[in-house]
Amino acid sequence: MTKALFGQMMDSPLLISNILSSAARHHAQLEIVSRRAEGDIHRYTVVDLQVRAKKLAQALERLHLDAGSRIGTLAWNGYRHLEIYYGVSGSGLVCHTINPRLFSEQIAYIIQHAEDEIIFFDQSFQSLVEGLIPLCPHVKKWICLIDPALMQSSELALDNYESFIEQESGDFEWPIFDERLASSLCYTSGTTGNPKGALYSHRSTVLHSYASSLPDSLSLSARDVILPVVPMFHVNAWGLPYSSLLVGAKLVLPGAKLDGPSIYELLESEKVTFSAGVPTIWAGLIQSMKLKNLNFSTFKRVVIGGSACPPAMMKTFQEYGVEVIHAWGMTELSPIGTVAKLKASDLSKSIHEQELIQQKQGRVIFGVDMRIVDGDLNALAQDGKAFGDLQVKGPWVIQQYFKASESALIDGWFPTGDVSNIDPDGHMQITDRSKDVIKSGGEWISSIDLENVAAGHPSVMMAACISVAHPKWDERPLLVIEKKPDVQLSNDELKADILQFFIDKVAKWWIPDDVVFVDKIPLTATGKMQKLKLREQFKNHPLPCL
């Protein structure tokens, strides 16, 4: 038997602390800018970040926590939260980011399920925390991320972050350990039942950071100024706190102010080139810019994910000179799985054909594999026509949920819950979530396609399409509309105009049977439309029996 021949390269583990150490050593003047809860703009360098992250690691070491202990956060995007990202994971503990937009009962469940031993929180969440403390007696410390002089008084025992780390020297060596050890924990918010935890490793996080920076992915570089609008409590801000430092890009953190004018102010004042967030955030930015007739000076690329980006929004950004990068992923994918980028063969196609490709969810980045299957798990053709259940696998795809007794995989693949098609060039398009697809007369109608058309109407701020029971066709589409604030038409006039708007854009039998108007379309804790709530609200809505 021939003896195996191993390579003779250094065997260095892929650790999150290496990202910070490399950035501090080779990009020492790299700036990190934060809008603080204190009201001002805070600036320091990545070297300052590393010193303070090491001080945090030292302070945590004093508590004699077991390796792998979970440390929770309830915080917006800011430099202190970034220090926790690196200080906690780098010291061998697990950084557990908690979504404060969830119901308090869900948050308490998550904290207890994760067995968090310490919670760091922004002062804006202090009342939430005071309600959580009696429900989470196992938490040893609740530490507020605010200057000590500005910390609000409380009848409960709360610690201060600055006081917690101030006595430490920062003279600390990051420990070396197995790259497969847990680094961070994120819980899903879109599943039925209780939220489920996705436990990432150092290896999966570093690989995801590499892959997400590639030219055919998010195309990040040291020439960028990156503003993550997606919150750091939502799937680690899509990995940007790691990938930005990995490439040496200036990082701008917006804090709690995510309204259109506040985001625009940072985009301009900090000369941001790249940002990322869900469509609802960008709708507010565009609306505020149009009201004031504003333009961008440096902003060139925006990643839009979380839910499908309406083509009308893509077109608007393009008119402002901003490239829209459509991306798809999930908490279970760390989160990025596909990115919509053109191939060389696509460049000879018409502008319209290119736009249709860019409106898809895109091609896999190396490390992720995907397929579509039918109900019997038979793989379907990648011909752009067949659609089925989307499955994925790869080194940053979840294998099983935290504390679950069984694997989440089916035949080695993770079932995403999305219904998709894949064309011969590998471009994937989600036609619906499996729970949202509308089955009418035995045929499927894509709610996403109908929402995209409706979103292009000049009077529509946001559109959700849901299924409603129908006596003849089983289900039919109902369009739920949130109007723009300046609409002058009556609801009846606008309904007729919107239905007319669908003609020649979709098959006639796809056109919604009715349109209803709401003051606000309900959103989930991660900014996605809450269709379950809408289906419950309009389950008895009468439709014409044609």
Architecture blueprint of SSEs:
Blueprint: H1 16-26, E1 31-35, E2 41-45, H2 46-61, E3 70-74, H3 79-90, E4 94-97, H4 104-114, E5 118-121, H5 126-132, E6 141-144, E7 159-160, H6 161-165, E8 182-187, E9 197-201, H7 202-213, E10 225-228, H8 235-238, H9 240-247, E11 250-253, H10 260-269, E12 274-277, H11 279-292, E13 301-304, H12 311-319, E14 323-329, E15 336-339, H13 351-358, E16 363-364, E17 369-373, E18 388-393, E19 414-422, E20 428-433, E21 438-440, E22 443-445, H14 447-455, E23 460-470, E24 474-483, H15 491-501, E25 514-517, H16 531-537
Parallel strand pairs: 1-11, 3-4, 3-5, 4-8, 5-6, 6-7, 10-11, 10-12, 12-13, 13-14, 24-25
Antiparallel strand pairs: 1-2, 8-9, 14-15, 15-16, 17-18, 18-19, 19-20, 21-22, 23-24
Number of domains: 2
- Radius of gyration (CA) equals 24 Å
CATH architecture of the largest domain: 3-Layer(aba) Sandwich
β-strand percent reads 15-25%
Instruction: Find the CATH superfamily of the largest domain.
Output: ANL, N-terminal domain
What share of the residues lie within helices?
25-40%
Q: Could you report the average pLDDT, rounded to the nearest whole number?
A: 94
CATH class of the largest domain: Alpha Beta
Biggest β-sheet strands, sense, barrel: 9 strands, mixed
Strand count = 25
Overall morphology: globular
What is the fold-level CATH name, i.e. the topology of the largest domain? Rossmann fold
Number of helices: 16
N- to C-terminal distance: 74 Å
Query: From the helix content, strand content and strand pairing, which structural class follows?
Result: alpha/beta
Q: Which regions have little confidence, pLDDT < 50, spanning 5+ residues?
A: none
Strand order in the sheet with the most strands: 2-1-11-10-12-13-14-15-16
